[in-house]
Amino acid sequence: MPSLLVIGGTSEIAKATALAFGQDGWSVELLGRNQDNLQKAAAELSVKMGHATILYHAFDVMDGNFSDFWKSQENKPDAVLCSVGLGFDPKHSQYDRSLTEKIYRTNFFSLVSILDVVASSFENRGSGLIVGISSLASEWSRAYNYTYSASKAALTAYLAGLRHKLADKGVRVITVNPGFVKTKMIESLEVPPYLISSPETVARDILMAVKKKKEVIYTPRMWRWIIFILKILPEWILKRLKI
Length: 243
Description:
Blueprint (H helix, E strand, L loop, with lengths): L2 E5 L4 H12 L3 E6 L2 H14 L6 E4 L7 H7 L6 E4 L14 H29 L2 E6 L12 H20 L5 E8 L1 E2 L14 E2 L1 H13 L4 E4 L2 H11 L2 H7 L2
């Protein structure tokens, strides 16, 4: 039975993905900052998966030493999904230096320190799968989210480089670019309902990407074409559209 470690395991997307993989025959473990939330998430998943045992580990990606945690795990997972992320705050992040730095640390710097450890271990083993959840914002930076976009753009570039580095080492790296997903992150935004997908949709697309050995996915798939169109539009048109 293949195994998956979900980092940031209490987010809506993380839980939905853990469930999708669990129902597909994977064993799943959760890692996150809050012990109580992890316990609750593990219990919910256990019931939905038919009372399977869901292990969980309390770990703060901002302050903990992931290398020590990884070494302490006797049975390393076959795959790691990184679902850690701090959403943008359109009202304050542009003017609050500490919040800006927190967004960069959470969405990029802390993840690099984690994924470097995982990548090195998988490379030495000669097998493994890394799934990093980035964002459409990494390719579509607008006035209301450019701090968040910059952090995700850095993560996307990092994952691309990691994928290139590990291409002949038996290790796969998948970059996931979700659109607007019905989570707490978009509660403050005015988004047309037809552009909002569910965490379950993202989870199914991630599982399908693993099975079909894809490297970069947009979820839902329509966003690949929307982003393509936005990229070829002149900047002066985008400014007028205010999108």
